[in-house]
């Protein structure tokens, strides 16, 4: 996928990973030299799993519904095209960063647009990642402790196993998860330290794929699955408009750009960044395609916007309840392990935004601890007290994610501060911006339509499903 000079190392790649004097790059991996005293560099496999974990978040559960909207053939083709477009945007970002000597995304933005460019990128990463992690925590609470919507309680896994008790309620479960899982992982200062948890996270995503595929194959052999829809059904203008509601999900399914530079900066061999990006995108595309195909094949037109919601009823095969619990638990643990990858970029960008002139974050344990604790407290409190956070964050989240993935890399290319852009680069950049703007307009309109016209929206429509299905832009990440 893609090409160009993305495999070339940044200037100064042989220098120490971190400068001794802070340059204000919020998303740079700025751990102090002492933190890397015995660190020889990240491995190829570790970098692949870290980047893949950044990509594969909750969005995997939204993809089967795109097949219901687009049909299998166009849907699978769009997943591949989205991967190719993501590879191209990363290639542009890394190539122009190399030319500018920028060791971080925010430094590349600063080179192209100055102070305000750096700050705009940092604000977008903070908005995007805070919203993403709040949603992750809400989903974990829903899966393990259940949720209540419209006066109806949907039992969580722990409630189903042990009954309703104070110790498996949402507050206590999320508190234990925050203290025992999120806090230790969030305190790691080097992104490569998360390579083992990232490996487990990707493995759990594969477990979900295997279980879903296995159930679909068993039911297919038993003749329990009808022929899936290969192409979309277009009967009127409303059905045409509905096709576009799948575009934002696909456009932002691969957002990982804010972690590309930190992963690159820690590599033992910096020239491996190109095959690392390709391998990660290939792995994630395979997971996405398999999940989309078998998820839609299994549930057909009953596929919900969050396919996890389909795993709370009888699947029509032996051990259905066991398989349902396996899917939900593996998914919840997967999100727990994705959380620290998103948190790493959030903390660095927030620190760069608030303390641009301070010494490196990792060399200031007091500031590191305060920022880490404050962010965890805000995310935990929001997940507990604002369970309807979806509506509050849909608009800002859509804009921030698309800006990070496509608009900013394209803008850096068009700005061309180093004079290296080719004609094709600029054509591609314009295409990315147009696609991002169109998908944003569609997302904002569809969200507004859902919020202000809930009564008239079809109960099973892509943009009109009930809130317990968690259909929103934030599900993409």
TrEMBL record:
Chain segments carrying region Disordered: 1-30
Biological source species: Zea mays
Name assigned to this protein: Amino acid transporter transmembrane domain-containing protein
Gene Ontology BP annotations: amino acid transmembrane transport
Intracellular or extracellular location(s): Membrane
Keywords attached to this entry: Amino-acid transport, Membrane, Transmembrane, Transmembrane helix, Transport
Keyword Thylakoid set for record: no
The keyword Cell inner membrane appears for this protein: no
UniProt main location, coarse: membrane
Gene Ontology MF terms: L-amino acid transmembrane transporter activity
Gene: LOC100273225
Coiled coil location: none
Residue ranges of the TM segments: 44-63, 69-94, 120-144, 164-188, 200-221, 241-260, 281-299, 329-348, 368-386, 392-415, 427-446
Pfam family, one: Aa_trans
Ranges for domain Amino acid transporter transmembrane: 42-445
This protein's GO CC annotations: membrane; organelle membrane
Topology of the protein relative to the lipid bilayer: Multi-pass membrane protein
């Amino acid at each position: 996928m893609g090409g160009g000079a993305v495999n070339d190392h940044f200037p100064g790649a042989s220098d120490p990973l971190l400068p001794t004097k802070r340059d204000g790059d919020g998303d740079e991996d700025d751990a102090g030299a002492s933190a890397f005293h015995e660190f020889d560099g990240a491995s190829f496999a570790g970098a692949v799993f870290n980047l893949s974990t950044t990509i594969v978040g909750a969005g995997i559960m939204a993809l089967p519904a795109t097949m219901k909207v687009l049909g299998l053939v166009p849907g699978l083709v769009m997943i591949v095209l989205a991967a190719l477009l993501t590879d191209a945007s990363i290639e542009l970002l890394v190539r122009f960063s190399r030319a500018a000597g920028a060791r971080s995304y925010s430094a590349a933005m600063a080179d192209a647009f100055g102070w305000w460019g750096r700050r705009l990128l940092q604000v977008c990463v903070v908005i995007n990642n805070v919203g993403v992690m709040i949603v992750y925590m809400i989903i974990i609470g829903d899966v393990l402790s259940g949720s209540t919507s419209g006066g109806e309680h949907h039992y969580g896994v722990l409630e189903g196993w042990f009954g309703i008790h104070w110790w498996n309620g949402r507050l206590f479960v999320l508190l234990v998860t925050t203290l025992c899982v999120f806090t230790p992982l969030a305190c790691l200062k080097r992104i490569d330290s998360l390579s083992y948890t990232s490996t487990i996270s990707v493995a759990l995503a594969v477990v979900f794929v295997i279980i879903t595929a296995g159930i679909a194959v068993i039911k297919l052999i038993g003749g329990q699955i009808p022929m899936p829809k290969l192409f979309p059904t277009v009967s009127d203008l409303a059905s045409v408009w509905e096709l576009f509601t799948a575009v934002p999900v696909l456009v932002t399914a691969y957002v990982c750009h804010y972690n590309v530079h930190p992963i690159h900066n820690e590599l033992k061999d910096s020239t491996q960044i190109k095959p690392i990006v390709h391998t990660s995108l290939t792995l994630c595309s395979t997971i996405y395609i398999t999940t989309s195909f078998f998820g839609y094949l299994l549930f057909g037109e009953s596929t919900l916007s969050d396919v996890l919601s389909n795993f709370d009823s009888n699947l029509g095969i032996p051990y259905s309840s066991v398989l349902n619990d396996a899917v939900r638990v593996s998914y919840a643990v997967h999100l727990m392990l994705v959380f620290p990858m998103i948190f790493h970029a959030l903390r660095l960008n927030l620190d760069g935004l608030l303390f641009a002139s301070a010494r490196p974050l990792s060399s200031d344990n007091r500031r590191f601890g305060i920022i880490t604790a404050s962010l965890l407290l805000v995310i935990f409190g929001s997940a507990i007290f604002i369970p309807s956070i979806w509506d509050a964050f849909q608009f800002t989240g859509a804009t921030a994610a698309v800006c990070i993935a496509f608009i900013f890399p394209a803008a850096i290319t068009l700005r061309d501060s180093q004079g290296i852009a080719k004609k094709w680069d600029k054509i591609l950049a314009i295409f990315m911006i147009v696609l991002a703007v169109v998908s944003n307009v569609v997302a904002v309109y569809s969200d507004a339509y859902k919020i202000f016209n809930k009564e008239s929206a079809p109960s099973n429509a892509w943009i009109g499903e009930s809130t317990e299905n968690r259909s929103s832009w934030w599900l993409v990440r």
